Structure formats: structure tokens, C-alpha cells
């Protein structure tokens, strides 16, 4: 079976289609689509399991706004599997010319390739652009179809002589299929908050150790003393003025760290238009004027903390706007999990617990695959030890148990990412 090379067709061209058979009763046709407009939104979303950040609308906004396109190093190639004329499985893939915006850092691998005169880029990536949120990456209803999709993605990478294929932040179901397809795995950690049926914020704080509870209350008092109030806007209540101010804050956060923002104002305009019910914006205000903002995306029983920024510094404002306000919002709304974004040990003191996240990797060159496998074999125990150490510093009372107990008894909860 010959596969048409990726990255060679205009986005509006007819899809590259070929046929494969993966075991009994799995006859399927595969195609690579460059433009998400050519994929039926309802069929895609049915496979996306209701996760807002894997939805057709979210990915299309990335494309339409020019954020995740070939010119920015994110050339889309959506891998589709049809059976009997029906869309049976799908996978968002991007041909990447760099590793920015991924939140799983493989630049050392790229340097190793370069030092030996080999090209690491372009590589093939199965991920949601600029979005380190766990969720389905092999969009299919059955394990067999997920395995078939993973194996086909490998063949696309192999047939185009790409250095590697990387799947970022997959679900547990994806991991099972990727393991069967021969991928290597890399462990990482994020911090999530779990709702144990708290009736109010005070009940949540009561379960924390006295020093951590005291510190949170002190920080909240600083905001009150500075005259800061908070206002939540959801869905259609978010007007253009609020969105403009938020985007100003978002850009400032990136610029203060010496980076250009990944996302433009058009992207957020499209989200506001096509994903209105999923947006929740908190504004911090002082004397009636906004001074900080944080945009969250809501899906199913989860709230995803995504973007933050401020135009005036006040001690404790970041923690209050991004984390404590979100936690209180989840309690009031009955939301089960708040995912506070990538990295950040500081989140532990706010009652957010470490959860394991994963990435999966296929390396075409067997020599480098062996070297990376050896590296991961040494790195993984270190990450696990780090997670264990984090749990030893849990902000919760030892006698009361940890919220993780209700999610994954006796172990660190996995970030399944189902919305």
C-alpha cells in the first residue's frame, strides 16, 4: 500500500485516500484531510466524546484564525478512518517544524539528532495546538479502531520518512491502544482540583492543614483590603469589551516573559461565537475598573483553566483570580474537576493535587528509538518519585484523607481528560 506524501497539497484539495485492512472485520479506508471544513462537525464531535478542547469548533477556530497553520509550523493533516461510508475514527495530526506550543519538551532530542547530522524536523504530532489538556487523541468508539488508527498514523510517518510521531496528553484508553501499537511513553505531572461534594468554599478550606488554610485566607484578605472584587461572566454575558480587556491581559502575560502570544484576538472571537456556552471569564476589578482576567473553558463535569493576565500588580491577585475563584466557581456550579493548566508546584498549596499525564512517542530510526527508550526508562522513576514527594506535602489534613482517594484509591489519579 502506497501512501500519498503529506504536506504537499493545498488545503482545499481533494483528500488523499488509500485503503488498508487491519485484522478480521476491520476493512477500512483512510484519508488525510488538510482542511477541517471538509469534515462533518457532528461526526467529528461524536467521536470527540464531548471534550470541548478536541471539538470541531475549537480546532477549526485554531485554523480559521491562522494560529495553527503551516505558516506557524502547525500544518494540519487530519487522519480519518471510514468504514462502510461512515466516519469510524479520526485523529488530529500536525506536521511540525519546531516544538513550540506543545508543553512536552523534546528539544534535547532534536539537538541530539542535529549533532549527528540527522533531521528531527519536520515531525508528526498528535495533539491539540497550544493546549496541554489531557483528552482523547485517537477518536474512536472501540479499542480495535484506536489501535488501527495509531498503527496507520505510524505508517503515515514512516511512509513520509519523518523522524518521529508524538501523541501528547492522551487518555487511558488511548494509552492502551498506543502501547499495543508499539509506542514509547513519557510521564509528566499536572495539578488538578477535585470536588468532594463541598457545599461551600469554607468546607473545602476546613479539610486543609492549618498553615495552608491560613495562608489562603491571608492572601484573600489582601485582595479585599486592596478593594478588589470579582465578577464572573458566562457565555453570552461575555461582551466584546470584556473580551478585549481579557485579550490585552493575555498578551501582556506572554510579552512579560519575552514571548509573542500564540493566539490572536480572532481566535477568541471565534470561540466566543461558536463555543459560547463553554466560556467562563472572571474579571478582577478595583474601583469598578478591571485589573485582571482569567478565561476558563467548561465542558461536562470539568473546568479548564486556560489563560490569565493582569494590568495591575496586587499581592496574591494571580492565585485568587486563577485558582481560588475557579475552585469556588466549581463548588457553586457542582463541577467535579478543575484542571489548572500545565506545571506549577505553587498550585499544590491551593488544594490542587498532582496527577500523572503522559505522552507517547514513535521514533523511526531504531538506534535513536533505543537511546530514547533508555532515557525514558531512567526518567520515569524520577518523575514517579517526584510525584510521591509532592503527595507527602499534601495541603490536606492527614486524618481527613486526600481528595485523590475518591478518584484513584491508593494511587495518584490519572488525568483522563474526559469532559
UniProtKB/TrEMBL annotation:
GO molecular function: transferase activity
Key words of the record: Transferase
Region (Disordered): 395-419
One Pfam family here: FemAB_like
Protein biosynthesis is among the record's keywords: no
UniProt KW Transferase keyword: yes
The protein's name: GNAT family N-acetyltransferase
Organism from which the protein derives: Candidimonas nitroreducens
Amino acid at each position: 500500500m502506497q501512501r500519498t506524501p503529506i504536506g504537499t497539497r493545498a488545503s482545499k484539495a481533494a483528500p488523499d485516500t488509500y485503503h488498508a485492512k487491519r485484522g478480521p472485520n476491520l476493512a477500512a479506508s483512510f484519508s488525510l484531510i488538510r482542511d477541517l471544513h471538509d469534515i462533518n462537525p457532528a461526526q467529528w464531535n461524536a467521536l470527540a466524546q464531548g471534550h470541548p478542547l478536541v471539538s470541531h469548533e475549537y480546532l477549526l477556530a485554531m485554523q480559521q484564525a491562522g494560529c495553527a497553520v503551516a505558516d506557524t509550523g502547525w500544518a494540519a493533516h487530519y487522519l480519518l478512518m471510514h468504514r462502510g461510508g461512515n466516519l469510524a475514527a479520526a485523529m488530529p495530526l500536525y506536521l511540525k517544524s519546531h516544538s513550540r506550543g506543545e508543553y512536552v519538551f523534546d528539544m534535547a532530542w532534536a539537538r541530539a539528532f542535529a549533532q549527528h547530522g540527522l533531521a528531527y524536523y519536520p515531525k508528526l504530532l498528535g495533539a491539540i495546538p497550544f493546549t496541554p489538556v489531557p483528552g482523547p487523541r485517537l477518536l474512536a468508539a472501540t479499542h480495535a479502531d484506536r489501535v488501527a488508527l495509531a498503527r496507520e498514523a505510524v505508517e503515515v510517518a514512516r511512509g513520509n520518512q519523518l523522524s518521529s510521531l508524538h501523541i501528547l496528553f492522551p487518555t487511558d484508553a488511548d494509552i492502551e491502544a498506543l502501547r499495543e501499537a508499539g509506542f514509547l511513553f513519557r510521564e509528566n505531572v499536572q495539578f488538578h482540583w477535585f470536588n468532594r461534594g463541598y457545599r461551600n468554599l469554607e468546607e473545602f478550606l476546613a479539610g486543609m492543614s492549618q498553615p495552608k488554610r491560613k495562608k489562603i485566607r491571608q492572601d484573600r484578605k489582601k485582595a479585599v483590603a486592596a478593594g478588589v472584587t470579582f465578577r464572573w461572566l458566562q457565555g453570552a454575558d461575555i461582551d466584546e469589551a470584556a473580551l478585549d480587556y481579557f485579550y490585552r491581559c493575555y498578551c501582556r502575560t506572554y510579552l512579560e516573559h519575552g514571548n509573542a502570544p500564540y493566539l490572536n484576538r480572532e481566535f477568541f472571537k471565534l470561540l466566543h461565537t461558536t463555543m459560547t456556552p463553554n466560556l467562563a471569564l472572571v474579571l478582577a476589578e478595583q474601583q469598578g475598573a478591571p485589573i485582571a482576567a482569567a478565561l476558563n473553558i467548561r465542558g461536562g463535569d470539568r473546568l479548564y483553566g486556560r489563560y490569565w493576565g493582569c494590568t495591575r500588580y496586587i499581592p496574591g491577585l494571580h492565585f485568587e483570580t486563577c485558582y481560588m475563584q475557579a475552585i469556588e466557581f466549581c463548588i457553586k456550579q457542582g463541577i467535579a474537576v478543575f484542571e489548572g493548566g500545565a506545571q506549577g508546584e505553587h498550585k499544590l498549596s491551593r488544594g490542587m493535587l498532582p496527577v500523572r499525564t503522559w505522552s507517547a512517542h514513535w521514533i523511526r530510526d531504531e538506534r535513536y528509538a533505543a537511546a530514547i527508550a533508555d532515557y525514558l526508562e531512567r526518567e520515569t522513576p524520577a518523575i514517579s518519585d517526584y510525584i510521591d514527594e509532592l503527595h507527602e506535602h499534601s495541603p490536606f489534613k492527614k486524618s481527613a484523607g486526600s481528595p485523590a482517594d475518591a478518584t484513584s484509591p491508593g494511587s495518584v489519579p490519572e488525568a483522563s481528560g474526559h469532559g
